[in-house]
Amino acid sequence: MLQTITSSESYIILAVFAVLTLAALIYLLSPPPPMSLLEDVTIRGAEIRRRIRELLARGTFTADTRTVLVVGASDQALEHHEAIWLLRESNVNGSAMAMIRLVWDAMFRAVWFDGFATNEQVELAAHDELDWQHISVRNDIKRGRFGTIQDSEKAAKLDKVFGKEFWKIPNSYTHTGRRRLARRFSYDQVKPSYTEHELAQGLSAATEALLSCFVVLLKNLQWHEEADEIALMYNRYHAEFDERLHSGK
Hints:
Layout: H1 7-29, H2 37-58, H3 65-89, H4 93-98, H5 100-115, H6 119-126, H7 137-146, H8 152-162, H9 164-174, H10 178-182, H11 196-220, H12 224-247
Helix pairs in contact: 2-3, 2-11, 2-12, 3-5, 3-11, 5-7, 5-11, 8-9, 11-12
């Protein structure tokens, strides 16, 4: 036999429905939680890479050997950058961190081919016959671009990019050094232990390689409008992330 709902029961049902409706509205209208540093760095890096590709696709290039090496190395750096993002997305973090140096290597070679390599060196490199062990790409770029730095603060900043201490970190990850091996373990388990802060710093370093080197390359190609746009992206990126990367927040 069916029972009728009393007035008090109907009030309870209406009250529950009202509470649930209010909770749903609060959820829908509330601002989304702030993204983590790693999420922000990942999104901004992908946006920057896509924009640089768009700018690079605007122009035409001569087919001389030097230009082919410069543009080819630059495009390879963009692909390395994208590969890091794909590895990170798949949680293959050790390999992602190992590739960060490859972005810098490709970009530095592009800058070196563009402004510092002799014609003979360009031809040797084009045939894989250049003896890279006797060439200091970073020192050539540092001296050629900046000369002797008197300002100690500026010199310290340059050493962060060109100096040995900076390169110890990506070298360790690329060549399975102490830093990389240490992060293969979580206490006594063989389980990667990369923190989000470490990953954010690594991905950011790869993006900074693109920003800093493409400014130089596009200026040398006389693409001033595009170079200015990347310079603006570079300044905005540092304003947005420098303090956060330092603090990890």
